[in-house]
Fold each of these.
Amino acid sequence: MNDSPTQSESQAGVGVDVDMCVVGGAGHVGLPLALSFAEKGLKVLIYDINEDTLAVIADGRMPFAEEGGEQLLARALKNGRLFFSSDPNDIPPKGTIVITIGTPIDEFLNPVHKVVRECFDILMPYLADDRLVILRSTVYPGTLEWLEGYLKEAGRSPLLAFCPERVLQGKAIKELAELPQIISGSTPEATKAARAFFDPVVPEMVELTPTEAAFAKLFDNAYRYIHFAISNQFYMITNSAGVDYYRILEGVSHNYPRAQDIPTAGFAAGPCLFKDTLQLAAFACNQFSLGHEAMLVNEGLVLYIVERLREKHDLANMTIGLLGMAFKADSDDIRASLSYKVKKALSMHTKAVVATDPYVTEDDSLLPLEEVVKQSDLMILCVPHAAYGNLDPQGKPVVDIWNFLDAGSSIL
């Protein structure tokens, strides 16, 4: 399929009736959802303003790593179940609308409703009474109730639901079919409609009120963020004492079930954990002290590493190599990756910083692994990609806070 999405026959603008429209459907949340429903036989319109990404999907290529995505995409295109558009005029008058746009945080670490409001302003002509509209991404507690009032003032009364995604990025298709789906609606009718909508693709549903559902999503991510912070704090304490954290962790967890879930140290990053923890803190009038401390620990780990390196090495005469620039292992997503914070912090103190990643394609400054190893005097494992499992550092030191490499060192 070589035509652009606005010219392709596979789009709603040619008068095709679809069962659902996914707003922001070309992204990490929307596309796996669209493919999962298309696999169940529904006709799905992917509406997104990113025309380049729509063209990639329409050509049968996944724009990011997603387990099982390529196979489902190929079948959906072959069976004529996917349609594409960047024009809101192509949004069909019927069918469920799923919105994958959430509430981000601003420079003051407060949630921003503007994005959601502007999205609904665009959708307003298509929000017929009793049409099911599902918010899928994280929203600030109270957003659905606020939105219901906002739409009523505009004379619109759709069935509003908030059904948060809680899947692991890169495994969204797999986990959507395995994990319970939280269902909430502004009315009992909206909740019932949302249950019927998700029934073909999820194994189990849990009903909550909209506010409870919003808290559930924020709690999921804040808990994980704090969990990682505990281990990162332990790492910095023991490392500063000249003790190997992972020898302690091995001793603590050996045949001791209550310590089995202590994670390794490492960069806790990405587009959700930090943001959602700060949204919860904002809702709590900045009284969520655990969340704020977790932010200081997880973000501060970067500066801790840089300062320890400055104490032990003449960085001004060294080239530092960064291994991995995605925000997590075996991902191609660099959003909110702390690897770039490492790069920025080091660039102020070193002769040069070079970086590599086997999956990331949107950073033209990245070099092949062999070139980074060759140029570097010292390397930092920023992301424990499986591809680095057999790394040959050629005798050069590697800082490995993850304890992932046999050749690495967990002590700075």
Amino acid sequence: MSNTTFSGPVTSTGGFVGDLTGNVTGDVTGNIANPTFTHTPVAINATATATAAQVATGYIKSTSAAATTITLPTGTALGTALGAVQGTVFDLYIDNTAGASTLTMAVAVNGILSALAAAEAGGSGLLTVPSGVTGQAQFTLMFSSATAYTFSRVA
């Protein structure tokens, strides 16, 4: 693999916008100062299993008036969409500020709650996102292999 040097503003297809300086050989080396992340929200407004492509955007919004459950794709489907390997970490943002009812997240095959999430329903294990002004959440998926992930709420 050849090295590519970036200097100055960089925008990626994954939503990263910022300045990047350093060599890239599969991993970013160098400093990223005050990056701004902009995601294009994908709407899921009814109970459904999210597609791997929807989750890969990193930002899901709901404007549903009814209670909604979003089930994540299987570890295999999501791992393939993200190009995941053991050690891949992915953040997923959920926005229910325009919704009128609670949104609940659920994991699918090869997706499990982290030990902390399983032990702490009121914190890392809180899978519900209220509607209205407090209706935002951040979840982290940590891949233990290309086809399996653990899931935790971080904000």
Amino acid sequence: MRLLILTQYFPPEMGAPQSRLYELARRLKEMGHQITVLTSLPNYPTGRILEGYRGRVRMKENMEGIRIVRTVLYPSKSKSLLPRLLSYLSFAASSLLIGVWGLGKQDVVLIESPPLFLMPAGLIMTKMKRAKPLMMVADIWPDIIIRMGRLSSSSLSAKAMLCLERFCYEQASAIALTTPGMYNQIRSRFPHLPNVTIISNGVDTRLFRPDLREQKLRQEFRAGPSDFLVGYCGLHGLCQGLEVVLQAAGKLRHRTDIRFIMVGDGPAKESLVQMAEDMNLQNLRFLDHRPKPHIPPILASLDVSLMPLAFRLPGAMPSKVYEALASGAVPIVAKGSDAALLINQNNAGLTYEPGDAEELARAITKLADNRALCRTIRENCLRLAKRFDREVLAQRAAETLTAVAEGKPLPPVSW
């Protein structure tokens, strides 16, 4: 099978889409499929083109046998809608105008959304390459933008995006969502669509594992052997609602045995750092973005891994949940998400109401004060992680993609 993956986000950038698509592409390549990735010059989440890629309009790379073609875009990490829209549209245009040429015939074009605006470009590419389009939807636009309060549901922009969403879905050979909640949402809104499935995110259990726990690393984070280390590792973005972590740390400032770390970068980090300084939080440290190989020991060295969301978001499943499960770092997850449903069903973590710092602080305290409970939940986490090993998930994805390429019925949905 010849597969073209069209995505604005790909390594060396860090993030859930980047990791998910790279890991899938690598394993499909190992299975013997021909994989090409058409993506942007790396710039996420800093909004600056990375060193070594600057000044380029189009460039080719080879990443473990995967052909990578990168095209220019307008980079931005602005919280404002217009600069972000320009970033999305600029890559959609450059990928179509200068990226797709010379890539050869393809059997399937996997179009990653968001951004939704990449879908029309992907559909044109499928015509050019005589391929079948598969829409890979990690966040449902414009629904999530409306829920974030960034767009009014009655606005002309929202109505236009809804029309675009419907058109693109109806043109696709198949639509793949990453969670059951998203699958159910699309099924209920578009019951006439013939091929809707789940291609879940997951974790490399050989990379993320509990035996990487390091006391030396914990000491670097100012956590002693008996201290309880709580961490957030990931994008400091707009929909994570990370202010609640700082507020919970403030409520627990009297607990000298509970320490907090926040690892990563993003558009909200500057304001969060200022907020922590204003609150004089001595029990919380911000750490710079770390390369991916540095993350597994950090997660394994945590007692709790936080999965905040700014609001209830049905269908949401942060990829950090899978990594925390495999690392044995007990997840505390925002309610109203698929992540919360998963850990509640398997007693593999605790939950709190988004934005409720008091409830988050109580959940942390419950685990810090009952280490036996924490150990029990940790064992449940490690068992659950095996269901989402990337090797297992890649095989399921290969079966789905092959069925799309051959025009056959999709295999049964599994999550």
Amino acid sequence: MNVSRQPVLFPLVVGLLYYLGAWIGVHYVALDSGIVVLWPPNSVLLAALLVQPRSRWWSLFLVVLAAEIAADISVFSLFHALLFGAINIAECVLAASLIRWFLDRSLDWSEPKDLSLFLVTVFLIASPLAALGGASIYSFLLERDTPFLTLWRLWWVGDATGLIILTPFLHMILSSGLLKQVVNSNWHVRMELVAAWIAGLLVCYLIFVFDLSSENYLALSPLAVAVVPAWVAVRFGPLAGFPLATAVALFVALATASGVGPFVSEKQDLSALFAQEFIIVFTVLLLYVAAFVDQNRRKSGELKKALVRVQHLNQALEERVRQRTQELFDANQQLQTLALTDELTGIPNRRRMRVLGEEEARRSERSGRPFSVMLMDIDHFKRVNDQYGHAVGDECLKAFVRAIAPSLRSIDRFGRWGGEEFMIIAPDSDHVDLLRLSEKVLECTREIVVDVDDQKVGITVSIGVAEWHHASFAKLVSEADDALYRAKEEGRDRVELNLRGLRVTD
């Protein structure tokens, strides 16, 4: 249960804590002269004002005023207690209003700029102004012999000390669920925190109670109490370090008020001032160290997360680039295939056959192994188109391809040369192979029958063959075309060969 969200219970808790802080301030952290080393209760009210909406402040004022009267009535009159309570409330209201006015969000103790705003507001504005009222009461109403400036300084630093060391801790408890985080932490973290508390308080005891201070290391021994809280704050963050720092600061104040420790001197106002200055410097340094370390840790975490996001984005981008590249490659391959493939029959077109033929000519030039070019022209194809239409003509072309392709070797290249002309590039073929292949093409073509309505359309083909003889591919095509022309002249449905540039008639 979050107590700060309970409109009835929360003011009662604040009032009880305020009374407890005032009672501790009067009886335990005050010197014999009445000088208070630190004033704890104002931190309770300031922390409460920082977490509560302004509409609920009035209930806090009432319980705090009642707690102030209850704590002071044994020492001061009701009138003086009311004045002290009003000054304390005004001090906390001023500090809370300024902090909330400059911030449009909750105070974050891990942000150095928020911490600076808190320290400036508390130490340089709210506390010195409230000290004017407190010193005036002591000087003019209570008629104390202490100089006004001395009373003002002691009130100022005492209030500021209490606010600085206790407000962060109380604010974290009220707004951040400190106890819940400690309970939910794993066991080795809890054990480490317990060991840190034992070590930190043991150092305080040795220095301030066991009195290890001496002339030889007086300047160094009080600083030893800062080591463990600073380590905890750096190790686990401000939320874990501030409670121990608060405990150490209270230990220093209580020890000094009891007359033990390195800050005790013959003049009690100097003892209080030494202790206050040490507590303020110790707490402020710890607050800043914890804030900067935590900020650096958070920034590093954010940077790591950003780098991970960038890596994921890069991977996604690389994947998209890879996909786009593959799609572009596939598209180019498809375009290249379309550019080199006859759209009607699906076999290589004239451009592709020319490339294949020129490659074969270069290969034969290097190896000396011959190849042949066969040009085939469907007989009377124009008559088929004129009589039956181009759709039937297209069916005849496709039927021709389906009939011839299975009869070819795997090394042969079959393509459409143009119109009704087709070409076969036959590597490593002699005279007998060429005749056998030609006869097979003629026979397969004669068996082609295309159904047109109730009619059957048959086709034949004329073939011209030219064998490589160290000539270019274009020359071989020309010689095969001559042989094809002769086959047409000799009656069609036949083959004419031009082997090694020599005319041969079958």
